[in-house]
Amino acid sequence: MTQSKQVFSDASGMFLFAGFPVTDYPSARAWYERLLGCPPAFLPNEIEAVWELAEHRYAFIKVLPEHAGHAFNLFFLNDLDGFIAQITARGLTPAVRETLPDGVRKVIYLDPDGNQIGFGSASVEP
Predict the structure, then answer these.
(1) Is 7 part of a structural domain of the chain?
(2) Whole-angstrom Cα distance, residue 80 to residue 10?
(3) What digits encode the pLDDT tens for the residues 86-118?
């Protein structure tokens, strides 16, 4: 096994933006509002919407029809079950639920264009 190396030794000033290219802005924005449970944090222009997931960590949609449906991102959470329950209460159903051999769990949603938005949780040692 190779040893992992941290790319940025000091990421304190780093911001992360995870993007999802979409074809239809109004329907994609409404879907992501349901998924994330809130309106966008800001709207940079008429073809983008940005949600702040945590401090300096963002997810955004952008109208880019030629790239729509090709994104896949995974966000790890401390309370995966609680977050998924909230999404379910807003009427969305995951496309995939899986537990990997090491105990890591993943729940994947597909937006209207087929982009994969995954949420995961590390295994809990007994």
Answers:
(1) no
(2) 28
(3) 999 999 999 999 999 999 999 999 999 999 999
Distance in angstroms (rounded) separating the CA atoms of residues 4 and 59: 26
Per residue in 36-95, pLDDT tens? 999 999 999 999 999 999 998 999 999 999 999 999 999 999 999 999 999 999 999 999
For residue 5, tell me if it sits in a domain: no
- Tokens found for residue 6: 């941290």
Polymer length of the chain: 126
Strand-pair partners of 110: 116
> Cα separation of 58 and 42, whole Å?
10
Whole-prediction pTM: 0.88
**Separation CA 76–CA 100 (nearest Å):** 14
- Report the CATH number at residue 89: 3.10.180.10
How many independent structural domains does the chain possess? 1
Residue 10 lies in a domain: no
